[in-house]
């Protein structure tokens, strides 16, 4: 059995939690990151979401190994790329607010998809409302199956990204937890 799927109302504390995490990770990395982005549904005002903040640490490709080592030294557990090239996933230390942390290559596809999807939902209320309705319905249909919940959102996410130039046959995005 996988983790329960819980979609909650937008919490205005999510940006504050992100900012605390951004500062903490920034201190751990000592300037290695090009930038740190708040992505995923908690980064979209007024969008209901799973209460897990998503954070992308953006680095130059040459700095990925160094960044992984620095995050591990700071208590993060490296989980590999989980099938998404140009992105490394980490499990957060238990003492921190619940979050997903990813190291993304600057200008890589994973980062582009995260930011494009986030920015689209921020700018288009009708898309944000449709996505929220879909997430709530899927959370009801798959209350204990995060994998099915994520897969059932795939066509919506791909539809948005295709409008921005995602190749029609690029389905690697379906495994991307930041878009869940």
Describe the fold and architecture:
With 180 residues, this protein is an alpha+beta fold. It has one domain: Beta Polymerase, domain 2, CATH 3.30.460.10. Helix content is 42%, strand content 16%. The protein contains six helices and five strands; from the N terminus they run αββαβββαααα. A five-stranded mixed sheet has the order 1-2-5-4-3, with helices on both faces. The protein is globular and about 40 Å long. 36% of the residues are buried.
CATH class: Alpha Beta
Q: Please give the radius of gyration in angstroms.
A: 16 Å
Q: Number of DSSP helices?
A: 6
Structural class: alpha+beta
Distance between the termini: 18 Å
User: What percentage of residues falls in helices of 4 or more residues?
Assistant: 40-55%
| The named CATH superfamily | Beta Polymerase, domain 2
- Spans of at least 5 consecutive residues whose pLDDT stays below 50 are 174-180
Query: In which order are the strands of the major sheet placed?
Result: 1-2-5-4-3
Overall geometry comes to globular
The domain count comes to: 1
Largest sheet: 5 strands, mixed
**Got a strand count?**
5
Strand fraction: 15-25%
Under CATH, the topology can be stated as Beta Polymerase, domain 2
Task: Compute the average pLDDT.
Answer: 92
Would you list the SSEs in sequence order as H and E?
A: HEEHEEEHHHH
Question: Mind telling me which CATH architecture this is?
Answer: 2-Layer Sandwich
């Amino acid at each position: 059995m996988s983790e329960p799927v819980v979609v909650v109302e937008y919490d205005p504390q999510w940006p504050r939690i992100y900012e605390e995490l951004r500062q903490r990770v920034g201190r751990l990395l000592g300037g290695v990151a090009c930038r740190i982005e708040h992505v995923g549904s908690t980064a979209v005002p007024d969008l209901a979401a799973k209460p897990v903040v998503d954070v992308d640490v953006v680095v130059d490709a040459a700095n990925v190994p160094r960044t992984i080592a620095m995050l591990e030294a700071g208590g993060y557990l490296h989980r590999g790329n989980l099938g998404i090239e140009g992105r490394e996933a980490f499990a957060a230390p238990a003492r921190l607010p619940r979050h997903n942390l990813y190291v993304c290559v600057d200008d890589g596809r994973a980062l582009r998809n995260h930011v494009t999807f986030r920015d689209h939902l921020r700018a288009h209320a009708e898309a944000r409302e449709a996505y929220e309705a879909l997430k709530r319905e899927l959370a009801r249909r798959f209350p204990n199956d995060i994998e099915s919940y994520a897969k059932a959102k795939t066509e919506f996410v791909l539809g948005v990204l295709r409008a921005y130039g995602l190749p029609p046959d690029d389905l690697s995005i379906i495994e991307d937890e930041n878009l869940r």
